Prior knowledge:
51% of the residues lie in helices and 10% in strands.
Amino acid sequence: MLKIFSHYFPTHTLFQLIVDALILFVGVMAAVLLQSSDGIGAWRTVLPSALCFAIAMVVLNGATGFYRPVAGQRLKDVVARILVGVVVSIPVAYAVFSVLPWGEFASEAVEVSVVLVLGLILAVRAFSNRGPMSAVLTRRVLVLGTGAEAESVDRALHDPSLRGLRIIGFMPLGNDEPVAVNADQVFRGRELLDIIDQENVNEIIVAVRERRGGVLPLRELLDCKMRGVKVFDLSSFFERARGQVRIDSLRASWLIYGEGFRQGVTRTVVKRFFDLVASSVLLVLALPVMLVTAVAILLEDGGPIFYRQIRVGQNGRQFKVTKFRSMRTDAEKDGKPKWAIANDDRITRTGRLIRKLRIDELPQLFNVLMGDMSLVGPRPERPYFVDQLTSEIPFYAVRHCVKPGVTGWAQVRYQYGASVDDAVQKLQYDLYYVKNHTLLLDLVVLAETVRVVLTGEGAQ
């Protein structure tokens, strides 16, 4: 994992992006120069255009989730993934062709050749992300501990998105430590430094919560770090690997003294400027969709079109959020707030569609313009549930130190929330966002939101 502006990106994904951009860049240059009689003139004009085209295509494919590994995916699903990539990429490719200044050099044959190269890259990438990671790009991980915490690390590393990390075994920290992991992977009777050397370990994850009383081999861990082996505790591992701050390992002192959780003036101004520009553009682009949605709601269920509800925003301030109405008008006729659940029978047919595509969220762009919300941030919750969750979940109120968002890190990472347990899971992602939010992370969330909508993973 590579840390860029406080956010972690899988190293193998960045490698794939760079390789694909280079292939597209070389492909465009070769196709144009082989067809052109003006070599030097074509080179000067096409080089920046080819670079822009290559970057635009890999960014687009990254936004649609094409670089997300999916282990064991069926052949028909891989083919469907390729078709989605082609359907999205090729029209954009031709649109890019039309605006780049290479028209006099790029014949129709050149454009077809470049599109074929793009299609080949999509096919190769879809199949390569289906299988195991190359050993060259895999980092070998040793886990210190064999208990429940070690088992949670093992479970996390089975996620396809973390296939660049491979557990080579577990080292117990005492003869009486319980074994919750595969016993065949436990190293017994071996010294830590010997395991590091013999198994070519790249990283160590300390999977224990109690560190007092000489439990950890501190001297050996220091020697490992001096040899270039990275050492992570549970908190830093889950933050790096899963993009979440774990509640069960969180302490008030870590929030106070640790890195992140900065709320500076510069960050606030930049975020507000981005929100104003982006939400204005999105409102203009979304206006036809919003008009069609309004008509569909009226035809199916009558008025009202919009649904306004009190939510809790930054610093606990309450405001009214505006959404397209997706439920029946008598959804809470008993007056008691209820969690929205999957396949909720209170949702209308139009509501089910606009929720899946997240069209119901579009009126919240007006909340963004008014300053009550941001484009990206923790989702605003109702006061009734905020009071309940604050009393039951430690540090829940920390999420309110930033503006709530139309979409958020938790929404693209944890797809549905309909209980207190789900709220705990989402809070771990919200805390990661509050700790690390930057303009780059906002752009990542927006790109992930596009993927969620295009792949039909829409959530509440």
